[in-house]
Specification:
alpha/beta, 50% helix
Amino acid sequence: MSFKENLKNESQKEREKLKNMTWRNRIWYIWEYYKPHMLAVAGIFLVIYLIVNVIYRSTFETRLSYAVVNNTSMEPADLESFDQHFKDYMNYGKKDVISSEASLFMHHGDTANQLEYATMAKFSALVASKDLDLMITDQLNIDHYMTLDAFIDLKQLLPDELWQRIEDSVYYGVNSNGQQVPCAIDLNDTFFPEETGVEITPCYVGVISNSVRTDTVISWFRFVLGEP
């Protein structure tokens, strides 16, 4: 008997066997005897899905990444709507990503809890991997991270005409050398708090010193200041 005929006979026997079983017994029988095959097939499909997903995600590009820290609002911040408006402003497409997070809290010293220490570790990892461009937070965190030289000198970063426009809203922090550096801008006079629901007083934004997307950062400043 050929392999094809043998396979056909075995299949026929299996069908007859299942035909004479109750539905409950059929399910048990199929699971017990074909479980390895089913798991193997499921594993193959999972691997294929993961590969396809990785390839697809690689076609996306992060255009800007920022974190909102110590938001005191009782309502969740609406960063998604704000980010979409910025994407429209920049004429970005579906695969252009604005990464933002508003559920972070950090205090320093003896008052910090375990969750805040975890946030600090996350923040440090994002900075080290150059995955963070902006930090929107209170004066406490601006001062703390400025002593670590975490923020760019805004006067050196921004075009002269933009600097002149925001100069009165600039906050000066002290760097590791004891020098005062224009490191943050007060967002309370912009539409950012109203648009997002973020409540921080004062609400400062600083540009991370190793940001690789400073051109987009400058455009973000223009956007939040209401420039056409």
